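How a chain folds remains the central question behind the approach discussed here. No coordinates are needed to read the tokens, only the vocabulary itself. For completeness, the protein is quoted in full, as a sequence line and a line of structure tokens:
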Amino acid sequence: MSYEKYNEKVKKISNSIKLNDNLLTTNRKGHNYRDLKFKKKQTRIDTGNLTNILSIEKDCIDCESAVTIGKVNRATIPRKRIIPSLPEGDNFTVGGCLAGLGLGSSSYIHGFFNDNVIDFDIILGNGEFIKNVSQTNNSDLYYGIGGTYGTMGIITRVKTKLIPCEKYVKINYINYNSFEKFYEEFKQRIDKKSDDFIEAFANKKEDYTIVAANFISEVKPENISIIKDKDILKQRHMSIYAQIANKKKHTYLRSLDYLERYSYAAFWGHYLYTPYKIRDYVYAGLMYSLMPAKILESSPGHGKYNISKYFHAANHIVGDYTRDEYVLATDMGVPLSKLKEAMDLADNMTGTYPRWICPIIDNYNSKKIFCTRKPELCKDDIILDLGIYGIKNTNIKSKEINQTFEKFSFDNGIFKGFFSTCYFTYEEFWKQFDQEKYEYIRKKYHAKGNFMDIYEKINYRNEVQKNNIRSQLFMFFGKKYLKQINNNKEKLIR
């Protein structure tokens, strides 16, 4: 793909923006757990053709913004290169990772996706095109864009670093029956940085698994577990692959399959919307075989079983109220030293297990707005993404649970993931972040009045309709099903 054609696309988008007098947004559905109805009231800019890799060199890759992580992986892994910090899903885009803080199991070494971006291009709210935004060129925008979720402009190109990799990974599973033993080993492995990837699971109370993966160049073919679209029914363990640790100490995967291990089931999330025992057939059969192609092809990605397509359809079916009141999907920001407190808090508020524990090194920079900790409150340079995904196993309202988690993160000087439903008040939100800096950058780069404000965007759906037909039907048929899920949770996630 030539840069000339890229420039033609950019010019077309820029011209369409110049003719607009409404709030702007992209037409991409994204991966947010929040409702996206606000897009219907805004001018949606088509960025769906920005899907080409422009160049690949030894140490960097230059992509149009809608290029997916899956496409990047398929282009770079044969060259024995990967992006340093990757989200574990194939359908995230490089532009989305830049604006939405991409992270994964290599982030404890390499930081956020943003920390590895060399430069990017962006179209401003007035149609102006700025090239090569970097640490030295429009640096305030470079550092300020992370975590702004499309409220600064339309990113059109991203150039990011590449690091060496191998074709395969060996995954080691280490189990613990107490928090203290788990935490000691987890911290030691993080300090040593000897693993290429590391994450952990709290399977249930006092049941933890560290999952450490390292690149290897050669594996006997018979030892490799390979996940394919057609094998989705046979590869259920990939939805929470660490659960097989009770039977195995290690497994081997292609690097591509490891990096995209959550693409198919969003961790263990797909079981939330399909009945026990037949969930796989609904998930892999009916939900895709009978679903209109328009829905399946609504966003770029690899394979018809891509989970983002599934969740967009499933969330539409169950309705906002049901989703918010019964399903938890939240990521707490936690200092490494405060993990026990966070786990106890989650136990008190909801008994939802399993939980994902992903360490990230926070490369503090005062120029950042959202993707950094407050050093006066958080002394740890390693912070954790504590992912709590599943059925709310308590009578406490989801709003109260989320507000409690938000307060814990902020009281400890760390942001809470904005992808999920957020319940901040305006005052609470801006106590945590530099509103003056955010508004200054927005005004300087013509985002103010042209793109939705970050608070309005992430807090858009504080109130949901309880009585729409979808919610009524799901609540009528779903209460028994939800109870069944909780009663059979261990079977469901294995």
About this structure: The CA atoms of residues 349 and 401 lie 6 Å apart.
